[in-house]
User: What shape does this take?
Amino acid sequence: MNIFIEGPFWTGQWTEISADALRNNGHHVDYCYHNRKNLRDRIALAGQVLSTGKDRNSAWRSRHRQRLIDKMLPGRWDILLSIQGTLDHHTIMQLRQTSPQLRVIYWWGDILSEQALARIEMAAGFADKLLLSYLGSYHTLKPLYQDRLVYFPFGVSRKFHTTGALSARDRERFTADVSFVGTCYPERCALIRYLNAQLDTPIAVWGRGWRKCRGIRHHGALSLADSLKVHRCSRISLNLHHVNTPNGFNMKYFEIPAAGGFQICDWQPVMAASDPGGHTVACRSLEEFAQQVKYYLAHEQQRQKIMSANSRLILATADYQARLEDLVVKTSACKSI
Assistant: This one.
């Protein structure tokens, strides 16, 4: 099949991982980014805003949609996968003039903010499938969108989420007893501060925004490949979901074990009905985080056993290649709206 992806340019390589998985299944795949502006784009947008008074974000959405049309119209496409994109009904109508068989899949993997709800509502006007990666979001919106709504959790790619051999420099740079990789939010700052007061060695922290968390020694943001090396080189990797996560698993929940790391994360109810949940140490309070971190630092053999079991399970059951192929088959069989 011919599949086009409209996705984000982002450190987590969501777009590239999806494209690679689909190509491995034998599909012809192309993609473009909906949030990456080159110098020509910036100049054109500045001129348009000055000449028309149009909002900059609205001007960019219009420019991106036209670019998407220009890139797709020379070919005939079977599926358009929009990953948190900015499509509208008019764009889809134009694309279906040359690809009347086009099916549209819209994938939202973030929390249900007001912006998210508006984007999903717009996509419901033209999408054949709406994907949500958090189970709580799925249950919230299921009454509205019925069978078009699909619970589609995040997963792993053997190509992108495994580390291979590590160099001596990697081990020197990334080895830690306990680490955290991610953007600074108040609840994460509180957890790191609390654990630092409880442990002999401070948490090794990488990510954006940590200057706002005073007293925390931190490093800069990492590429996906380097963040996976941190997980591989750490005895324990902390994983704290966004405070507004509506019952689900974030990307790191899958990435840490895929990289060969051991995670301790905050409790999500969906873990009770999940096989990986049975191999994940989860905590409901700061005190429990401290207790579990101390326990697993002191029990190496038990930690290694859990880590190995979870790594094998994640790679066997959460492979994007299999999940996306099943989605493509089901979407192709459905009647286009």
Observations:
- DSSP finds 14 helices and twelve strands in the chain.
